[in-house]
Amino acid sequence: MPTYLATGAVGLSPSGPLLDLECQVPKRVVASLISSSPIDLHDLRLDDARALLEHAGQDSHPEPGEPPLRYLQRVIDGLSELSLKDPLTGLGNRRHFRAVLERSIEIVARSGESVLLLLLDIDHFKNINDTHGHVVGDQVLQAVAGCLAACVRPMDTVVRYGGEEFAMVLPSCRPACGRTVAERIRRAIESLSVAATPQTNIQVTISIGGAYAPEWVRSTADLWIERADLQLYRAKTDGRNQVHLDLPQEISVSAEEKGLLFGHLPLDETASVADVAPEPADNIAHRVSA
User: Fold this and answer.
1) What does DSSP assign to residue 214?
2) What are the C-alpha distances in Å from 12 to residues 92, 178, 236?
3) 8 A C-beta contact, residue 172 and residue 114
4) Which of 26, 153, 164, 223 suits a disulfide with 122, CB 3.0-4.6 Å?
């Protein structure tokens, strides 16, 4: 199993967030655009778009000899990428987070893969802002964001959820490893030291709440977030700088439920199913709640 404590930048998505014009527009329309009169960039109001890209450190001007349509696509791609990023920390934003959650729910419903959602909140962050000012508060947010990004694999997703709260989506994270992973992240933040002034350093801690997506069930992003948020609340009320996880329940099927599920099958098929997953007749089923 890949380690979680790996350095490296966290991409917004394994496939990338950039829009592809030919995937968004019917091919006949693209062909018509290409065959029609050339695009005159002077006719387009791109000043605001260029300013946004320049502020993000991206090249916003056409390259020598670059076709107008290709340049326009590059501007659209750059704006699409910016729309998924938090400008302060460089992590994904809430919009990207929701998209990853929805995609993860579909994967878990089809494959039963274990996916862990963590919500992480900086402890006593208001006191940091009140004592040291918002500039130092921003520095703390950036330091925590960088530490979180260094704690996960490239396949994981780290976002700034809002304010001093962050979120992580960790695919292929088995329940037996979830607490170990979360504790490792908590300890990494606990070891941070952020310079408020040349003479003063700030020690930071976080509280973590997490929940697994229910396997083989198509839940909703809101219910998943609600379950993780409840665990974060418990971590806060129990003293902060703690980890609380909602671990998945083990699913078993009673004899009565087997009859309802497989009663329509021929005897030999029913027997083959029973051979794969035998259960005592008096076993009580545990149902997974979304």
Assistant:
1) P
2) 6, 22, 29
3) yes
4) 164
pLDDT band of residue 245 (cuts 50, 70, 90) is: very high
Length of the chain: 290
What span, in angstroms and rounded, lies between the C-alpha atoms of 149 and 123?
Answer: 19
Pairwise CA distance, residues 231 & 241, whole Å: 13
How many Cβ atoms sit within 10 Å of the Cβ of residue 199? 6
With residue 48 as reference, give the H or E element that holds it. Answer: helix 47-55
161-220 pLDDT, tens digit per residue, is 999 999 999 999 999 999 999 999 999 999 999 998 888 999 999 999 999 998 888 889
* CA dist 42 → 38, 46, 47, 72 (Å): 12, 9, 10, 12
Closest CA to 211 of 175, 239, 165, 164: 175
Distances 59 to 83, 104, 150 between C-alpha atoms, Å: 17, 33, 27
Q: Which two tokens stand for residue 191?
A: 């070891």
Q: At what angle do helices 94-111 and 221-237 cross, to 10 degrees?
A: 110
Q: Residue 270 carries which side chain, given as an amino acid letter?
A: T
What pLDDT is recorded for position 270?
Answer: 40
**How many CA within 13 A on the CB side of residue 69?**
12
| Count of beta carbons in the 10 Å neighbourhood of residue 194 | 19
Q: At what angle do helices 255-262 and 267-276 cross, to 10 degrees?
A: 140
Q: Which residue type occupies 243?
A: V
Residue 4 near residue 153 (C-beta atoms within 8 A): yes
Catalytically active residues are 164
Half-sphere exposure (CA, 13 Å, Cβ side) for 118?
31
Contacts of 269 (CB under 8 A, 6+ apart): 262
